[in-house]
Amino acid sequence: MDLGLNGQVALVAASSKGLGRAVATALAAEGAKVMISGRGEPARRETAKEISEATGAEVGHHAADLTRADDIRALVQRTAERFGGVDVLVTNAGGPPAGTFGTVGDEDWRSAFELNLMSVVRLVREALPHMRERGGGRIVNVASSSIKQPIENLILSNTFRAGIAGLAKSLSFELAPEGILVNTLGPGRISTARSALIDAARAEALGVEIEEVRGEVEARIPLGRYGTPEEFARVAVFLASPANTYVTGQALLVDGGMVKAL
């Protein structure tokens, strides 16, 4: 299937590693011009180079601390200046620290709010004028399976990822008449550094080996294994593409069937 991404401009936030990098790579492989972002210069530059060499696509990179409004504004502006506009926005950010209600304080709440919810608000706000100039666009938010089922010991993520889903649903109503489709993806257990950290924290709390924790998780996944970043990226790229003409306002899980909520 031709997804129609050849020549489209995609901005992928927090994309020097993990799921963001996988999505950026998949978009580039479909012929999109891709801007990646991250805070670390060496990793960001090397990632852009590797994606470009692997796909033959134009890949730019720009520094951005997603808790800073000025950084987000500059990131979107740089994307438009280099590539001529923005057709696709993939919002993404690292997860907040683990913890329960009793173990996180006001500063934890403020930091998670800025990183995981306000970053989405600001990225969308800055990208919308460019999408409107081009007559439409696609927004895909990378969240968590907690948009459907809260995850133990991740109260910050549970709270603000749910906020992303609510925001996206509201935006889908407002932006549909302008040809801008908005969806949210909830990764389940995907083999990334983030999932490894979560497993390690649980193993430490239980006093067991990480392999035992991973085995217990895999036993709850109908497909019997963790997903790969590439599997997640394939779903994201379809939703971000012109081939997606009728899916908007949805919160979809890429979790191997793990979450049992309808």
Order of helices and strands: EHEHEHEHEHEHHHE
Report Rg: 18 Å
Major β-sheet, in short? Answer: 7 strands, parallel
Helix count equals 8
Helix/strand-derived category reads alpha/beta
Secondary structure: elements and pairs:
Blueprint: E1 9-12, H1 18-29, E2 33-38, H2 41-55, E3 59-63, H3 69-83, E4 88-91, H4 106-133, E5 137-142, H5 155-175, E6 180-187, H6 193-206, H7 210-220, H8 229-239, E7 251-254
Parallel strand pairs: 1-2, 1-4, 2-3, 4-5, 5-6, 6-7
Helix pairs in contact: 1-2, 1-8, 3-4, 4-5, 6-7
What does this protein structure show overall?
The protein is of the alpha/beta class and 262 residues long. The protein has 8 helices and 7 strands. The protein has helices at residues 18-29, 41-55, 69-83, 106-133, 155-175, 193-206, 210-220, 229-239, and strands spanning 9-12, 33-38, 59-63, 88-91, 137-142, 180-187, 251-254. Strand 5 (137-142), helix 5 and strand 6 form a beta-alpha-beta unit. The longest helix has 28 residues, at 106-133. The radius of gyration is 18 Å and the shape is globular.
